[in-house]
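Re: beginner question about structure tokens

> Can someone show what the tokenized structure looks like for a real chain? I only ever see the sequence side.

Sure, here's an example I had lying around. Input first:
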Amino acid sequence: MIDYIYTISNGNMLCQSDNQLCIEGFYASDGGFIIAYTNGIIDFIARSDTSPYYVGVMRSANSSDFRCFSNVDSSPCTAPPNAAFPPQSVPQIMTLTVASSQDALSAENSDGSPNHAIAGASLLTGPQPVTFGIYHMDPSSCQQTYEGNDQHTVYAVFVQDVNFGGDLGVKDAVAIDEYEAGPTPSQDHVERYYYVAGYGRVREGSASYNPTSGRYDVPLGGNSVRNLVRPSAIAQPQTFCPQGTAPLQQ
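And the corresponding structure tokens:
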């Protein structure tokens, strides 16, 4: 999965057809990886400290919030964070079922948002949802404030011959479904990400989700496809609260 997630665009970024949202990858100063969007969202991706075999989003930031993810044991995120299964976490090496592009299309609404799991997707987190803690972080001091818990379940499948259009055209991809429950029912949702070797996170869709009934949202959710290669306009973000430092304060 490193070859799919840790993708440097070599001076280019991937953009939507309207150029309103672009994305680029950078290696972080702490040995992890950064996925940065032109709208200010930043994902810091690295291996877990408690399950080094897994790689996922250890910290995330947007214009108003910076968060890290920890095991739910009333302790703050350590560095590296101690969440065995942070958001979107997947094994670095895994064997996946192969699905067709038609299988993937049949699991989507007309706008590309997910409406059910892709046939044959493998459950990566076990039969029960995995719980992790969410902490707000002050990027200047790395001091943390506990926000609440989140439960998530992750599925993945290898999808052949997906037509992404634009400069990408038809590519094989790894599709990851991340089901999140909490901290409140209004936040229950599923996020679907497509990763392509050499391009990284090229597509994502989301929908609200009821984990009790298994029902997806109506009306449709959201979806974005980045299939245009453009010269980079994203400066490498600072590695806030880097991994490998002393445990952070609560």
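Each token stands for a local structural state, so reading them left to right follows the chain. The radius of gyration is 17 Å.
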